[in-house]
Amino acid sequence: MKLSDQADLVRLFADPTRVRLLHLLEREELTVAELTHITRAPQSRVSTHLARLREAGLVRDRRAGPKSFHALRDGDMPDDARRFWELLRGGARDPLLAEDARRLEALLRERGGTWADSVAGHMERHYSPGRTWEAALRGLLGLARLGRVLDVASGDCAIAELVAPRAQSVTCLDASATVLAAGKRRLGHLSFCRGDMHALPFRDRSFDHVLVLACLDYARRPAVAVAEACRVLAPGGNLVAATLRRHAWKDVADRYNHVQMGFEPAELRRVFERNGLLVDLCDVTSRERRPPHFEVLTVHARREGAR
Question: Which of 22, 40, 130, 288 is spaced 20 to 30 Å from 189 by Cα?
């Protein structure tokens, strides 16, 4: 980061009113009128500060009828600005911020209706106690009844930990002895195997469910790795995969030791179909909010036949 850019960020965060606005907009989408009411600052001053924060990529706005709502760009804020903001946010203890928070709570009560009413249509952007993606995933896994599961390139078994309570058995395979040792410390009751995704040390059709999550980017020969995952899938079994869509960010790929620069949906679908699987889904299912906005491909595939 150049010195001139650092100086610009310091000047941006040096104004107390801008910092107050960021604290409020991190908690709730608000209009200029509402921000003026809470901060007691002149409306023209609030509008000017919002424009500056928007220009710097810290704040976004959204039209809803005649109103414009403003909120913190928490998911895709520029990295340098994020670091400055996290430093300020973590150390801020000021009576003025506490008073702003009290006025915000009073304003939200005056809006009427329930909390859900106030965030309807954009609920995913707002925090509520206990409502997290991890909590939702753990709850949804209660619907699953899994048989013999193979987690290819399992790492330290964070995913295996989630599925294990709903599975008949879970086998974690990884090429790294270090991460497998971490997995054993985490979940000693599972099965662990050190091996290569390009040559799985298992019999044909020996698993009911195969997970190929965030590992094809590390495959020297991805078609071979896919063929191996399909080979060990039993009739009636299901395979899920997730990997990056093709991108041009070689510096990031090198940082994480990726040897592939992602894949396109059509080419990945063909690889699974050539190995005898029916592909129900092979498409981009999410786009990361933070730059460089990687897109993630998800594959849902199955082998026909009865278990």
Answer: 130
